[in-house]
Amino acid sequence: MSPKITVELLRQLRQVMKNSKYITEPIQAYIVPSGDAHQSEYIAPCDCRREFICGFNGSAGTAIVTEQHAALWTDGRYFLQASQQMDNNWTLMKMGLKETPSQEDWLISVLPENSKVGVDPWIIAADQWKNMSKALSSAGHSLVAVQDNLIDVIWEDRPARPSTKLITLGLKHTGLTWQDKVTALRGKMAERKISWFVVTALDEIAWLFNLRGSDIEYNPVFFAYAIIGMSNIKLFVDRKRLMEPVVREHLELDSPSKPELTIQCFPYESVYMELQAVCAALAPKEKMWICDKASCALTQVIPKAHRSAIPYTPLCLAKAVKNPTEIQGMKMAHIKDAVALCELFAWLEKEIPKGTVTEISVADKAEELRSQQKDFVGLSFPTISSVGPNGAIIHYMPLPETNRTLSLNEIYLIDSGAQYLDGTTDVTRTVHFGTPTDYEKECFTYVLKGHIAVSAAVFPNGTKGHLLDSFARAALWDSGLDYLHGTGHGVGCFLNVHEGPCGISYKTFADEPLEAGMIVSDEPGYYEDGSFGIRIENVVLVIPAKTKYNYRNRGSLTFEPLTLVPIQLKMINTDLLTQKERDWVNDYHKKCRETIGAELERQGRKEALDWLIRETQPIV
Amino acid sequence: MSPKITVELLRQLRQVMKNSKYITEPIQAYIVPSGDAHQSEYIAPCDCRREFICGFNGSAGTAIVTEQHAALWTDGRYFLQASQQMDNNWTLMKMGLKETPSQEDWLISVLPENSKVGVDPWIIAADQWKNMSKALSSAGHSLVAVQDNLIDVIWEDRPARPSTKLITLGLKHTGLTWQDKVTALRGKMAERKISWFVVTALDEIAWLFNLRGSDIEYNPVFFAYAIIGMSNIKLFVDRKRLMEPVVREHLELDSPSKPELTIQCFPYESVYMELQAVCAALAPKEKMWICDKASCALTQVIPKAHRSAIPYTPLCLAKAVKNPTEIQGMKMAHIKDAVALCELFAWLEKEIPKGTVTEISVADKAEELRSQQKDFVGLSFPTISSVGPNGAIIHYMPLPETNRTLSLNEIYLIDSGAQYLDGTTDVTRTVHFGTPTDYEKECFTYVLKGHIAVSAAVFPNGTKGHLLDSFARAALWDSGLDYLHGTGHGVGCFLNVHEGPCGISYKTFADEPLEAGMIVSDEPGYYEDGSFGIRIENVVLVIPAKTKYNYRNRGSLTFEPLTLVPIQLKMINTDLLTQKERDWVNDYHKKCRETIGAELERQGRKEALDWLIRETQPIV
């Protein structure tokens, strides 16, 4: 991985920062967040502005360029990768370390007095704008909205915004029609006396309308906005996508069943003007919902007196609690996914001794095997396929220049997942094809203990995920070890592999209580720079737990693993497990053998079945 | 408990609400918060205004009087007590119940249009003022600051503000002179480019100046303010307290060593005018720190451009991290405290069969025994001494009409602590003097497992206390049980028994990372309404932990119990403990026996020593 040379780009950017064609007064710093106008985590190539300016292409990071400095903030997953992808014009700001200043503090320390800091108001979320603006003004500076994106100005061959074909999903996959979902949403709005709701998150729009797209790789979403009123549905999307008869029929565009369920279609770009029009017509006491993570640009269209900014939307919550159809779909998707992975591991055992299997070829093989499964749509994120030291790069993606060959001597970590019409998967397994060292086994076992501690946890209804995070770390902490990422994230159903508003993390923001039907990942890890990486990840479903007592009738919850792929026994130091933990491993492997075994048998995949049976022997 | 008759008082209050002698325009409602001008948790009799107007004397509650209505908001701990202490002029607003309106919502529902709501700006914290004011103005009303406290106007025999003798603490007790503390504080101010700091919390002032008072029961503080500049120290305190030669010498009032360490003394009441004078002389970019929990009155003196409101102050943090002298003092205080408690339990075993020991008599006996220890000053909070069902009332305090007799049949819970010149204690033990039921033992053992899980936890430097809270609950959760309070609070050193900014709670606000030298309580519990209460509380010191590995050189922390009082073995179902937990109990009891045994021997307290030896036998 050679760093991107940014000397010329930075020179150009610093020039436009002073160019009156784009800004009324020169700015002394320009903030380039990752993210698009929908605050998406994964973004389309046309929105990869932060990567364009600094070279770092991880999923999270903010670049700031001043007249003298250029700095990038990213988190522990990306320290190594960022340092490799950026040239020495850039300072890497390692978030989460004590000595690392916040963006605000850093700006205040380097800026001359009374500076102006620019940012594209479509790319920065309203809540971030507020915090940044407050911090800067308290130090005598100001945050200014720059309407023209200055990266776009200097980006000569910037790709066009995608507009892919839409997929319609029927009741079989969604369990609820979009009309039902709109009606339920309006019920929530009526409860809170809200007359309008501006929907900006792409997965919320896709979920609400039971539509999918492929505008953003790995995320089956499409560029759109929606404004929902008590008797209006305004959808903003590239109009040519609505020409397909199946889409027109799905949305009842030509023959709406009821007036209040009639969708008015507008071009994607007209959301700003239409929102202005809606706001202009509001009665004095009318309130409009918008997520506080929506863009500053759209948020500020709504007059303060009418604006009700919410940390997460009712759609986000409704989407997170899967209905029985979605749960069944997720289970099916995970069974198919496990079939593909069992095949992959059986194949690897045969092939590795030949010395020709590489990180990239395994990733390709995994995709090939998954694509043979019914209703496969694509991958749910770039496969992390990493050998030895590459495994320590938490969000590693093999490139030709980093590609390592799998061997009998190094740990191999694969974190991968797929989109199926019925669900989304995300699974990590860490394996050794030779003989792991005692130290590798020790670390693996601590990670496994953490994984089990979360998976088997019983906790009261209403508990937030952050209260479970330490369970995943306790065994590592006891030995002075840790990992610098959260333990789990929400998982969509044939939607984004990362979704809110719940998760399991030491970070406590945007963390809504867990409830039955939510689906999250459980993925503790341990990473030793330059040596190896270990992560054990299952997707788990929140289910009611049976307990001996029931304090104040609150009820309890626990998790059911949806991922059913064996955990390599060779990596476990069973002496470090308690009897309860051994029982958990055996029960889990029994379930893998029964459920996935039956499907392997049905699909006639004999070698994988033999491998599964061998890998799920009980431990004692 | 008969209710206070408030007809006449309410009539008087409603009159002064319209009296132009006190207010420029009539107000339609008057808010009476609990709390004093320093936002203290415990308050002096002269500040018990909410109790005066409505009769309810619990520690938390807000009264609001309008022209037609009078209502009191309090939480679940006090529903019964408040309903008994108030007459039927008052409506009890049960906080936490779904149907109970917030103060803001209630005011909006009962007030005529364009009403003015008054409050004493000294009693309401700046952040509360902000929220209330925002809610009222959004409904067309306004919150107004009434300079004369209207309760004081009608309170004829209001006690005088206490002005007790000041105690000076030397290096032997504090480890740092007040001059060192001021210099360190100025270092923090310089780091953040702050030129002034307004200190309003009484414990921060007491800690900074190495002075103590007894103005508020249980809290060794005194009424004062301080304004610290880079070359000024302004202390606002009743001047007659500074007449004592020992105080004058301690503060170097007559012969300051350096100009920047010269204390200027002002009357307590002149803080407002003096702060105005300081603000008037500020240079354009000068910033002044004030806690966002300080009074609205003082906060608003500081022009916004100069004000830097912080959620907790550098003194709060400095005070929380105890220095070696303070740690040594806290250890000594806990040894003496344990001696008193061993004596108490030995005495109880003899006395209880006589049937004459009551909740109140135990509390009195505990105080008597503690008062025999060196440098005893007083109790650190009202003793919670509770038998059987009274134990389920978490903040129970025995009164003659609720006083139960201790017996061989019911669980007894005592939560008590003292102030010594060298430290503050807070300990809870739950015991049975007959034979506990299997269920009582089961619950006790879950609580003990939680207590041990926190006490023995190893965690990385920089971890916040809320990440440890679930360790205390896991064993209870597994069985469907829980407790509805936090697990621990910061403890002062010969200061307030509750202090910030760290703690162990599922609530995550105002939670600063734990660091070596901090002292917190570890007190999980379980409460069964109408039956019993269980709590096991030690005060623990955060210390560095030795671990096998040291990830990223962060270092690890763990806890060392300062409280050394046996945990009743009879209450433990040892089958439910792991070997590690049994070892912890045995190690803990060994330490109790060695440390407290030596002191009991030194003090010649033979019976208590025999009791200690018997109660600290190892379990197998």
From TrEMBL, chains A, B:
Metalloaminopeptidase that catalyzes the removal of a penultimate prolyl residue from the N-termini of peptides, such as Arg-Pro-Pro. Contributes to the degradation of bradykinin. Its EC number is 3.4.11.9. Pfam families: Creatinase_N, Creatinase_N_2, Peptidase_M24, Peptidase_M24_C. CDD domains: APP. It is found in: Cytoplasm. Residues 13-147 form the Creatinase N-terminal domain. Homodimer. It is an enzyme of class 3 (hydrolase). Residues 329-542 form the Peptidase M24 domain. Belongs to the peptidase M24B family. The keyword Heme does not apply. It catalyses: Release of any N-terminal amino acid, including proline, that is linked to proline, even from a dipeptide or tripeptide. One of its GO terms (cellular component) is cytoplasm. Keywords: Acetylation, Aminopeptidase, Cytoplasm, Hydrolase, Manganese, Metal-binding, Metalloprotease, Protease. InterPro entries: Creatin/AminoP/Spt16_N, Creatinase/aminopeptidase-like, Creatinase_N, Pept_M24, Pept_M24B, Peptidase_M24_C, X-Pro_aminopeptidase_P. Its cofactor is Mn(2+). This is Xaa-Pro aminopeptidase 1. GO terms for biological process: proteolysis. The keyword Metal-binding applies. One of its GO terms (molecular function) is metalloaminopeptidase activity. Residues 557-619 form the Peptidase M24 C-terminal domain.
